[in-house]
Amino acid sequence: MNASILVVGSVALDTVKTSAGSVADALGGSATYFSLAARRFADVSLVGVVGEDFPAEHRRLLKDRGIDVSGLETASGRTFRWSGRYGRDAGVAETLATHLNVFKTFRPKLSAAHRAAEVLFLANIDPELQSEVLAQMNGPKLVACDTMNYWISSKPKALKELLAKVDVFFANEEEAEQLADRPNPLQAAEAIASWGPSVVVIKKGEHGSLMRIGSRFYIFPPFPLPEIVDPTGAGDSFAGGFLGYLASCGVYDDVDHLKRAMAYGTVLASFNVQDFSMKNVQDLDRDRIDERFHDLVDRMSVPRADELLKSRALA
Ligand code: AMP
Known about the structure:
globular, 9-stranded mixed β-sheet, UDP-N-acetylmuramoyl-L-alanine:D-glutamate ligase, 12 helices, alpha/beta, single chain, binds adenosine monophosphate, 4-stranded mixed β-sheet
């Protein structure tokens, strides 16, 4: 049986403008991006809420790809909506509007099967909801969470309380610096780690990512892409590749597995940004993921001097 991952987060209709074009009311949301990225590695169940206006085809898309949507409630009202735009610096989203809609009154209640999941991902959503979900779990082997500036500004106390209970924290550079009130990502990761998470992952968009374990930092380049169409959801796809890979191995505390998880996160994020909404991730298969993973790992590796001498001697 595959390992199981439970994700709680937003399921959204996004209106996005980038230098490559725009989309209106496209399928979005942190839990949606995460699920589509993680499903090639593990069984994924999604907990969230949508409104009566949520198109049936979007629910079908998730279901058809093997994602358990029995925890995706339909409430009376409108679906969560986010709109944003990206300037020339594709890494930083400018939020134009956030309409919580059905999320204002959402109170997640997990089924017995959902409570038993091995890995819990608390994707970007109200930190109070993230804590409510965590409190209902039986004892997952790994708990990870993500957030964004909206929640860092509006609910800093709830977020800090949550961080004391998670193993892995994901944030982008600006969010980590804002949350920790520190001027650079290394100092921010150190401060955040002191509040609880043993692994802190900081994403720097087109400049790659950092992982802090213990007091050591590991650095990762991005997969090089000449054009970024839409960065929305890259962080959630990153988390999907990262946690999906760890769940598929059932190993959560080994540095080498965590390094490979960073590379899988990088790969899923890179596919994500090559098209709008879920278009470039929804039909990805494991072979294409692994092909890019090996390509990335190959480009990252620097040969040792003795290996170079050995290969020249053999030539
Ligand atoms: P990312 O680009 O990985 O940070 O995630 C983008 C997704 O987050 C979009 O699809 C949005 O619908 C969703 N999102 C934006 N703002 C919020 C928020 N305040 N809470 C939860 N989800 C959000």
